[in-house]
Design a protein that fits this description.
Helix content: 55-70%
Structural class: mainly alpha
Number of strands: 0
Radius of gyration: 15 Å
Number of helices: 7
Order of helices and strands: HHHHHHH
Amino acid sequence: MSLVSGKVTAEIHSRMRDGFAVYLGGIDQALSPERDFLVGEAISIADVCFAAELALFFNEKARPGELGKIGVEPILHAGVDAEYPRAFAHFNKLRQHAAFAPEMEPYLKKFELSG
């Protein structure tokens, strides 16, 4: 939220980066080996929360100037999906799922066009 409000600092961004690494590392581990969902055999609130939380990080893509002003690199850099392959594969699957796509795709498209 501090990025959206223009109040992000290098320290806040560093904490976001650290939290992101721990969170996505845990998601990657939870999806290992070859699980289709985070909990159980169907979409659960865990999958919904994961998709929503990761989608919020896409706000960075629309604000490269703010990141540059404080001298930090984006958390969602070009190779981030290779660092957390299961998490991003799961996110990409969820964003195309009929339960997510109507809201998720328009939200994410605006960031993909700007970044």
